[in-house]
Structure formats: C-alpha cells, structure tokens
Amino acid sequence: MSRVKAALRTPWFWAIAGIVLLLAVNTVKDPAYLAIGVNPTTGLLTGNLLDILRVAAPIIMIALGMTFVIATEGIDLSVGSMMAVGGAVAMQTLSTLREPDSVGAMLAAIGLAVLLAIVLGVLNGVLVAVVGLQPFISTLIMMLAGRGIARVITGGQNTNATNEPFRQLANGQLLGIPTSFVLAIVIVVLIALLMRRTALGLMIESIGINPRASRLAGIRPRPLLIAVYALSAALAAVGGLFSVSEVMTVSVSGTGNLMEMDAILAVVIGGTSLAGGKFSILGSTVGALLIATLNKTVLFLGVPAAATPAFKALVIIALVLLQSERIRSLAFGGRTTPRIPSGPPSPSAGQGVPVTKEAVG
Amino acid sequence: MRITQRGRGLVGLVATGVLVLGLVGCSGGSDPAATGDDTTGGGEVITVGYVAVGPEGGWRNAHEQAVKDAFSAEAGFELKYAPAASPTDQKSQLDAFATFVNDEVDAILLTATEASGWEDSLALAQEAEIPVILLDRGVDAGDDLYATRIAPDNVTVAAAVGEWALTAFPDGANYYVLEGVPGLSVVNERNEGFEDAIAGAAGWNKVGAQTANWSPDEGKSVTETVLKANNNDIQFIFAQNDEMGIGAAQAVKDAGLTPGTDVKIATIDGTQGALEALAAGELSFVAQYNPFFGDIAISAVKSALNGETLEKTIIVEGETFDSPEAAQAAIDAGKGF
Predict the structure, then answer these.
(1) Chain A residue numbers touching B215 (CB-CB < 8 A)
(2) What value does the mean pLDDT of chain A take?
(3) How far apart (Å, rounded) are the C-alpha atoms in residues A246 and A88?
C-alpha cells in the first residue's frame, strides 16, 4: 500500500500513466495500433511504437540537457536553435566532403557539430556565470543568434547531403529498435552514471538551491555552470543530428523550431522543479517520451490542426495537476499537508511551490 | 534628372547598351538639367534606390539578386542597394528611404520589413515626385501613395497546384495537407487557393490537415503516422512548402510505397532541393513561388517614370514543374534558389 502511495507521488509515474492512456486511446481507434510488422522493401521492423521511439530521440537529448540547466535554477532557450546549428554543420560538412558512404565523413560531421555547439554553449555559460546575465536573456540571445549562425553556415540554403552511415542514425535499427533511440538511451545512461556516481549531480543541485551557500561549502559555481550550458548545447546538437539524419536535409528555419518548449515541458512533466535544486534524469526521459507519444497521437487520431494546441494543452494540464500534491490529496484523500522536502528549508527548493516569474528568470 | 558623380562615370560604359534598349525618353522630364549630360549619345542613367530586406533566406537571396541583375548598368540603371540592418529592422529601412528621397533618385523600390509605419515616408517621396514600387511585401498605406505592388500571389500559386491535381487525378483522390506554421497568412492563402481550385470536383476527399512547421523532419513524421492511420490509403499529399514535401517523400518510401506512383506529392516554392527531388521522381509537382521578377520591376519603373498609371497590384506568375525533365531543365537554367 505504501509502495503504491510512493508511486503515486513520483511525478513521472503520471507521465507513464499518460503514455499508457494515449496508447490505449489509439488502440481503441485502431486495434492494430501496437502491431509491429516488417517492411517488405527495407526489411526493417515498422510500427507506430517504433515511430514514437524514433521521434522521441531528439526530444530526449534536449530534455536531458535542459534538466541540468533547470536544476541550476537556469533555463536554456537556445536548444532548438542549437539543433539547427548542429544539423547545419553536419549537412554542410557532408555535402562539402561528398563521400556518400564514408564513416569518416560522418564522424567528422558529428565531431564538428558537437564542437561548435560546445563553443556556443560555453558562451552561454560565460554570459550566465561570469557576466551575470539572467539565463533567460543570455540563452534568448543565443536562440536568436543560433538560427543566424545556422544560416551563415549553410549560406542561407537548406542544405541536403548524402551519407548512408549518417542516414542510418535515424533510419536504421539496432535489434529492431531505431538507432537514434538506442544511442539516446546510451547517452542518458552514461550521463546518469556521471551525475549520480560522482558528486557532480549533487553539486549542480546545490548551486540550484543556493549558489552562495554552495560556494561557502567549497563548490565553485562558475566552471560548473559553464559546463552545464556546454553540455546542454552539445546534447541539443546531437538531437539536431538525429533530426536532420531523418531526412538528410537541414532547414535553417524549421529544424528544432519551438523544440525548446517541448524540452521544458518534458523536464517539468518529469518532476524537475523550475525553481532548481533537484533533477530527475529518468523523469525527463519519460517526459520526452510522453511529448513524442502526444505528438504522434494527435496525428493518429486526426485531431484538426486548429484544435491541436488545445488538445495538447489539455493533456499537459491534466498531468501537471495530477503531480500537484494539493490536487492529489483532494482527489484521492489522505494527507493535506505537502511533504516537507528533506534538506535545507529553502523556500525555492520545495516541491509543490508554485512556479514564480522570478524562479523562471 | 540629376546624375550623381558615380552615375556620370557609368554613362560612357553603358552608352551602347542604353542605345540598343532605346531608353531615350525615360527621364520623366522632371529635371531639365539632365539634358546637359546627353553628350554620350542621348542615353541617361536612371538612378533607382532599392530599400531591401537583405539576407533572410534562399528565396530572398534569389529575389534580391534577380532585381540587382535586372537593374544593371548595361540596362541603363544605377541601382543603389540598401538592405536592412537585420530582416526585422524597419528603422534602418526608413533611414535608407529618407536618404534616397534626399538624394532625389528617379525611383524607389521598397520591400518593407514591416507593413505599418510607411505613410510619412511614402508621402515625402510623393511630394518629391519619386515613384515608389513595392516589391513582394505590401504596406498598410493608401494605394495612392505608391505606384504599384509587384508580388507573387499565394492564392494563385496554390491554385496552380489544385489545377494540376485535377488533371493528375481525374477521378479525385484521398488527400492530406501539410500546412506551415499555424496562423500565418501564407498558410491560409495557400489553403484557400488549393481548396478553391478543386472545389466542385468529384471524388476529392480531404483525409486531414496538420502543421509540420515548414520543416522536413516534421513533414516526414506527420506523413508516416497519417499513412499508418489510414492504411496507406492516401493518393495525394499537398505540402505547402518544399521542405515538408521532401520529408513526406521519405515517409512514403519508408512505408514501402513509391512516391509518384502510389502517392503523388505536390509542393510550393521551387527551391533547388525540391527541383532535385522532382528530377529524382520523389516529388510529382512543384509550383514555383517566383522570386525572379526584376524584368517586371524594370518595366514598372519605366512606365511610372513615363507618367503612366499602373495597376495597383501586379501578380507575378510562377512557373510550374510537373516532370523530372522539366525539373532538370529548370535546374540547368538556374531557376532553383
């Protein structure tokens, strides 16, 4: 019984419930929804579930980076533009190298894309940690500049390229699962190990709770903050690589457009507080999967384009309400007082504290 | 007509071309001082100020280059090109416009970054008897303040797609529309043009419409799910821009279908990538949103300087490409952008 209660209190439990519900609705519409078949022309497995996993991969990447930024009480609005930058670098490199099947060209494209993203991410981090700009503003600048940078890289064109190994990133499968999703999960696991098996995650959370106190405790926030923004940018570039490898074209205005909103939603649905101070990597991953499932459900149900934003908003509002301690106690009974978070009684670190403008900025 | 220092130097260079084109009499007769410069053979350089948007994307680049190429020295023009500081910076455009009025250029070409806020500038130009010709974008001002607006028309371009679809599917089809970013007038106009063109034809069944935000990967994602939800029973996809159509073609292939045979895809814009995809048989039809209207702008400038009254809107007709051969010919002719 207590285990059930604990599960109900885990924010991402409701995200999983949401995914299951959406899949169930789709299955009611078409009983063959969950079926996995084999495509006779390509020999690959095909099915709606695999499509969801594939389109979730870029969202997982940007949500993962966003998780750590938000844990430091920051926000990274530039992830969508960073996807375009990463995609633009990759496509431009591949189309310049013109080696259709060379793995070397692919690695060069990936390497350059991630490298440039890290440089831009460090710039974000320096603006936040050294110059002292609000994260909202500095990453907003980078959000606008990123598209311009992508445009400069491709010379204003929507560059396309051919490189079979690179195309396999999104369109290939490993053991029947889309390669990009497998890679995304590997990256998630590696980063989760790095954050949780070392003190890194704890230090990031402590900056989010109280940067001054963490500095007194011997944690230097500046290099950590810069690293967090660089990581976010690098992961966004990887997400951009997944996106462009789907179609082998980068659209300087379309790739990653408005994806920063998806990333923030995924992180919040996953239970990371916008007030900073704690993060849940698993939660963000589940949140990203929910966003992907939601996007695909809208299409599968044939929700009219005009009603789509409202439909999505309803699902997300329902989820966020279910995560609220107060609403849950009203709906399911039980304790009415919110759980007191263990740790220092910082007003901004508590669960269920309403998100204020100040906390976002 | 006043001729500037730089223009004077060009006179000798362009004299031959001017003679061939017979531009005598284009001066508009507003300034008698110009007659003194006719020593090179009666030709005059027409000075045109171009208040432009500047680097914005493939279409804009192709369009502005076409204008610059058309208003060449050989054709008897001196084009003063003034791009905005950024594609949204109206202030720099207003400044450039005022400078052109002060310099007393013969005509002004204007592509406004913002529709509003141009009344005062346009009135100044009118006072100075400088005709203003709007290229591509309109402004929220009385149409007596400018000579004409030359632009391609989204409704007309989308209607071309609809007309082609009627011939490609005489018995109708199940079709799906990939729309651009919701709420834009472009999206509504492209919907309107296409719907009007196929209205009344039998057998046309709209399976649905969804935005793919102009982006190729979203075009692919939307299409793959829509095909699965409808058991691949879709014969025609209307993508409102090239990128979404290119993505849709990938999804069609991944579903084990053949683009062009099982599912025909029509797109609007006519970018280089789309022409290549059409040449490769992945798209079936591309309607060009024509950026190449420098020559129309030239004749409008000449007519305006001759004191003729122009239509307030001149719609630029776009070409359409419906076969791999046509696409290849267009690529060879450099019509992609």
Answers:
(1) 251, 253-255, 257
(2) 87
(3) 14
